[in-house]
Amino acid sequence: DSGVTQTPKHLITATGQRVTLRCSPRSGDLSVYWYQQSLDQGLQFLIQYYNGEERAKGNILERFSAQQFPDLHSELNLSSLELGDSALYFCASSRDSAAYNEQFFGPGTRLTVL
Amino acid sequence: GENVEQHPSTLSVQEGDSAVIKCTYSDSASNYFPWYKQELGKGPQLIIDIRSNVGEKKDQRIAVTLNKTAKHFSLHITETQPEDSAVYFCAAVPSLRGSQGNLIFGKGTKLSVKP
Questions:
Q1: Contacts of residue A56 in chain B, CB cutoff 8 Å?
Q2: Which range (A2-16, A76-90, A94-108) has the least confidence?
Q3: Minimal CB count within 10 Å: which of A67, A68, A107, B97?
Q4: Is A83 helix (H, G, I), strand (E, B) or coil?
Q5: Structure confidence by residue, pLDDT tens digits, A37-54
């Protein structure tokens, strides 16, 4: 158990809908990262937050947004969902934003868009 | 931006044999290279990492080597065991300003260790 929790574990929804994925980092970790894992694209970095502020952005679609709250939990919002958004979404946390810090991954949320 | 290539995509070895997974990266300024292991139904877990000022690092049966000139790094697992069966990902941290911690992953190697 990495100490990172993600809810829900599974999410099934229809095209055009909006969903919210939630992540609670390990106790004391200030940095949260979101990654998308799909068969064709592999593990792709989406976005990073550090202590409530956006720190880095990857290939995140404009339909996707995220935020980190004062209690350090984070939410990833996916809107106008398309079939291709079906994937595993992982949240990871680390002590701070430094590159050398180990990132601890949660168990993931499996999103299925029908 | 940074790009990481990983080979092979699948690797099958006999228990007790060694396994080697190789990765190349494109950004010569990248300076941190972790390896993650992902078991079925779980998130990736760090198994070993190496910084650019080090050429080799060992931790029991696993080792990582880095060649900065050639921009490639490798994972070596010796005396493989069935519990080593998993998907292994190499990664690099890009040097772009503001991208201080996000990982750029290779496509993964599915390692199968046959008893």
A1: 98-102
A2: A94-108
A3: B97
A4: helix
A5: 998 888 999 999 999 999
